[in-house]
Each structure stands twice: as C-alpha cells, then as structure tokens.
Amino acid sequence: MKPGIRSWAEKSSVTCGDTKDITMSRIGKKPIAIPDGVKIAVSADNTITVEGKSGKLTYKAAETFKIQIKDNVFSVTRPSDTKQDKSTHGLIRSLVNNMIIGVSTGYKKELEITGVGFKAAVQGKVLNIQLSYTHPINYEIPEGITVVTPKPNIIVVTGMDKARVGKAAAEIRDYYRPEPYKGKGIKYSGEFVRRKSGKAVAGAGAA
User: Nearest to residue 89, comparing CAs of 77, 98, 97, 74?
Assistant: First the structure.
C-alpha cells in the first residue's frame, strides 16, 4: 500500500463506527456555565444534584470520572480514552446540561388532535381523551409531569425531566398516531405528516 493512502477498512472505521465516540468526546470536554438561580452539588460517590426554581434532580455518575465545579463552571474529566469512557464522558455532560435546563426553564411537548369529535380534557391527575373508539381513554399523568389542555384539541406536556416529558408525550401520541389519508390522530405540534391520496382519488386521477 502506498504511503499516505488508507485502506477502505481504516476509512470506514473513522467515518462510521467511531463518529459517535468522537462526537460524544467533544461534547464531554465542553464546560457548562451554571446559570443564576441554579445550584449544583457533587457528593463523594459522584451523585450530582441540580437544584433550581422548578425543583431538584439527581444523577449518579460513574466514580471513575472527575467532576469539578469551579468559578460557577461545571466540568467532567474522563479517566481514559477508551471507547466506553468517551461515550460515557459525553453522556454525563449531556445529562447534567439537560438537568440544568429542566430545573430552570423546564421542557415542553405540545400535541395536536385532529378529527371530528376528537378532544381531550384534564380531570385531576387523569387526561381524558376522546377519539373514535367506543370508550374514552383515561391516561394517568405520571409523577413529575404536568399536562394541560388549553384547547380541546391541544395537549401540552411539561416537566423538569426531558426523558419523562418525551416519554409521556410519546405515550399519548401512540393512542392514535396521525394517519396519512385524512390526517386524523394525535401528532406533535409542527410535525409533518406525509399525506397519501385515497383509492377513489387515485382512481379518478388515473382515469
């Protein structure tokens, strides 16, 4: 092989398999400026506690990682450059950044309901959804999640935990995913649904 020319396998390892590790490694190295109103504490066993106006979140990081808070800046140092440590390095940094956003501004997912007679309303700790089924759906709102219905066809899911907010919104959407013909169902606000023409329309067009 000529000097300076890499084999196909070497190129593919950089452009495919190792891309995620490189990206996560770069993310992990980025320090996080702690905003006003947010407090971060780290215990001896590397349990990270983030507290803000919306509440408190905790995360247990691997003890092999060095967590440092200095001059109101949070940073993480990994113990080695192995593939696993690079991935974990970026994960810790991303999770802590999400926690900071969660306790300060929170997360929100908005859903839209489309369909004749389709509507939703919150009754205590239960989201009542009426779709085309013979009976209404009663979705129990998870702990730490707030659901409101400013309009019968709008559902807003909020909370501190990004993963929980996303999970709750996905569970609600799964009751009636948007179908491609008439667009009926529950979709995320701003979600693009690829529409299809019905058989009658397609037949008329062919004629």
Answer: 77
